[in-house]
Amino acid sequence: MRHIISILLENEPGALSRAVGLFSQRNFNIETLNVAPTDDPTLSRLTVTTTGDERIIEQITKQLNKLIDVVKLVDLTEGAHIERELMLVKVKAYGAQRDEVKRTVDIFRAQIVDVTPGIYTVQITGDASKLDAFLSAVAPVGILEVARTGVSGIARGEKVLSV
Amino acid sequence: MELLSGADMIARFLKDEGVEYVYGYPGGAALHIYDALFRQDDVKHILVRHEQAATHMADGYARASGKPGVVLVTSGPGATNAVTGIATAYMDSIPMVVLCGQVASHLIGEDAFQETDIVGVTRPVVKHSFSIRHASEIPTVLKKAFYLASSGRPGPVVVDIPKDMTAPTERYEYVYPKKVKLRSYNPVTRGHTGQTKKAVELLLKAKRPVIFAGGGVVFGKASEALTDLARRLNVPVTTSLMGLGAYPQGDRQSLGWLGMHGSYEANMAMHHADLILGVGVRFDDRVTNNVSKFCPTAKIIHIDIDPSSISKTVRADVPIVGAANHVLNDMLGLISEREQENRDDLDEWWTSIEQWRGERDGKLYEPAGPGETLKPQQVVEAVHKATDGDAYVVTDVGQHQMFAGQYYKFNQPNRWVSSSGLGTMGFGLPAAMGIKLNYPDDDVVLFTGEGSFQMMMQELSTCKQFGIGVKIVNLNNQSLGMVRQWQDLNYKSRHAQSYMESLPDFEALLGAYGFRAITVRTPEELDAALEETFKHPHELVFLDVQVDPREHVYPMHVPLGSMRDMLLSKTERT
């Protein structure tokens, strides 16, 4: 099963490589990885999506928690949560296809953020499956480049991941 | 307020932390620190001949004393040479602090002379590591390193120290930090009360219980509580290799150790048990054999200080995260509250165990008679007798290690010192040296083989310099015995590279360092040599014992089988 694990990590040199290194050392799987500072300058937040059975996910969370640099950890998929990913895509947009791409962008509630005579650069946010669906929709037209941030997430309701 | 350079802070901190010995080897990036050590008398430095030996010396000391061993090496090759020793300590959860010199900060990343990213290289084999960013933080970082190394589940901590951080010209205020706090690190000590109660209920109800104790009992100082619990409940006790000595082996309730080369009765008892109380163990593959066939009828209670050890390989029915001594004492408390339980209901279980014991008693090998070639097993038994079972026993890795574990009976913890998890050949000599140096009046016996010994034999020079009188028993079978055994069993006796041609003349080799070696071939020679060896407690003596090269270690788990599936000799199996 797919899990989204969010971690508050000490904002120290080497902390990220410890967390990420753990996955390859122990043969765990990383599908997406997203990391950025938080409002607290001493902490960064790392979100990883991974897959595995219950035993493996339990090991992943335990091994991560054991790292001295990991301050707090939550498996967002254990409860209701919001998951978002941002993607920038360069799509071919000539002649008749130009309108077709524009329509697809509107249907997906995406935005065109840069324009050239032959290319639209599209920004789209949503969960991973929405982004995948957009890519399949515009694939026949011609995708030139894709940049995805990886999943970021937060729990719904009162639950808060903070120190 | 005192102003000290980074290097002087390190020396002073080590003194304030109560460190007596540092094991190491100097080099460019560490020279400021070496100069600081030179200018003081409190912390003594032991110069090894290879950095790996420094880590094993520190490791041996840590295993015998329970306190972190301290290593000092230079950058680049000094630090990379230490990696095997760091990994050895990591696998066996041994407290160690490794101070590594590093090239000056402004050179880091430029492929400077003797530069290695040692924090990166050691990342998978340390509990934690630090890089010093400012000299003023040295005392705090060192305190954190010692705290992390020795608390919770212990392990090695690397501190990377760029040369400019120790420059004699830059001085900062030094205060010894008595305590440090890390917001993300709070090792659990007390176990969950509800879970502990549940564990006690299960133990009292069990008809075929076994206690399985490991290194966590030895290093968690829980041996006494464990012994008390086992005796009050009349439950048999087996240990992992790391747990040897956690329960007195001379005792009726001791089953010896379990696993691939564990005792017949321990493996049989585990397989037939209805309850396993695992304490400070990690159910590793050398214990369980095939996990899917492991203890098919048993419920598992697992006490460990490291939550990630629990349910990692074997699912625990009652997981208890906590320090072994705390949890066991809580269990003892709960048992005392109850009426004295009648433990006659374990009679049937004990009958089975005694039967298993009887089946194999005295049948594991045939000792050599007068004038015959010695069996390695009987050499260990003779050493056990000569030392009254009271020596520190250190091993290298291979057949001799298994024989030492099988035939030396331990009655107290911290006496068995062996690289169990990583299985590091070459570990033995320096580890034994680390112990003898700190316990000069005790007997420290190294069981080694001619293969392992040659991996670290340069350390004889260190023994000479510091007068370290370890007793070395070389079980010389002229081959890499364990490799050979596997080749006999699995490769139709094709002995690929397991035969040691051109062995040195050990008498001449030891003589070159000014030590005595005695060649031993028969039981009579062995008795005389042992008497001679232990007559001089402070003298290094090397016994080159020529043993039967065809001997195999038995019992041995049948691959992919359950714990009861064992080869018992070259011709018998369960």
Automatic annotation (TrEMBL), chain A:
* Top-level enzyme category: transferase
Q: Which reaction does it catalyse?
A: 2 pyruvate + H(+) = (2S)-2-acetolactate + CO2
Instruction: Supply the InterPro entries for this chain.
Output: Acetalactate_synth_ssu, Acetolactate_synth/TF_NikR_C, Acetolactate_synth_ssu_C, ACT-like_dom_sf, ACT_dom, AHAS_ACT, AHAS_small-like_ACT
Q: Name one GO molecular function term.
A: acetolactate synthase activity
Residues in ACT domain copies: 4-78
Q: Supply the alphabetized keyword list.
A: Amino-acid biosynthesis, Branched-chain amino acid biosynthesis, Transferase
**One Pfam match, by short name?**
ACT_AHAS_ss
What superkingdom does the record give?
A: Bacteria
Q: In which pathway does it act?
A: Amino-acid biosynthesis; L-valine biosynthesis; L-valine from pyruvate: step 1/4; Amino-acid biosynthesis; L-isoleucine biosynthesis; L-isoleucine from 2-oxobutanoate: step 1/4
EC identifiers of the protein: 2.2.1.6
Concerning its family, UniProt says: Belongs to the acetolactate synthase small subunit family.
Q: What does this protein do?
A: Catalyzes the conversion of 2 pyruvate molecules into acetolactate in the first common step of the biosynthetic pathway of the branched-amino acids such as leucine, isoleucine, and valine.
Kindly state the subunit structure of this protein: Dimer of large and small chains.
**What name does this protein carry?**
Acetolactate synthase small subunit
Automatic annotation (TrEMBL), chain B:
Q: Which cofactor does this sequence's record say it needs?
A: Mg(2+); thiamine diphosphate
The answer, when asked if Amino-acid biosynthesis is one of the entry's keywords, is: yes
Task: Write down the chemical reaction(s) this protein catalyses.
Answer: 2 pyruvate + H(+) = (2S)-2-acetolactate + CO2
Q: Which InterPro entries does the UniProt record give?
A: Acetolactate_synth_lsu, AHAS_TPP, DHS-like_NAD/FAD-binding_dom, THDP-binding, Thiamin_PyroP_enz_cen_dom, Thiamin_PyroP_enz_TPP-bd_dom, TPP_enz, TPP_enzyme_TPP-bd
Q: Where is the Thiamine pyrophosphate enzyme TPP-binding domain?
A: 396-538
**Cofactor note (record):** Binds 1 Mg(2+) ion per subunit. Binds 1 thiamine pyrophosphate per subunit.
Q: What class of enzyme is it?
A: transferase
Which Pfam families does the protein's record reference? TPP_enzyme_C (PF02775), TPP_enzyme_M (PF00205), TPP_enzyme_N (PF02776)
Which pathway is this protein engaged in?
Amino-acid biosynthesis; L-isoleucine biosynthesis; L-isoleucine from 2-oxobutanoate: step 1/4; Amino-acid biosynthesis; L-valine biosynthesis; L-valine from pyruvate: step 1/4
- Cite the Thiamine pyrophosphate enzyme N-terminal TPP-binding domain residue spans from the record: 5-119
EC no.? 2.2.1.6
Keywords of this protein's UniProt record, alphabetized? Amino-acid biosynthesis, Branched-chain amino acid biosynthesis, Magnesium, Metal-binding, Thiamine pyrophosphate, Transferase
* Thiamine pyrophosphate enzyme central domain segment(s): 197-330
Q: Which PANTHER family match?
A: ACETOLACTATE SYNTHASE CATALYTIC SUBUNIT, MITOCHONDRIAL, THIAMINE PYROPHOSPHATE ENZYMES
NCBIfam families xref list: acolac_lg, PRK06466.1
Instruction: Name the family the entry cites.
Output: Belongs to the TPP enzyme family.
Record's protein name: Acetolactate synthase
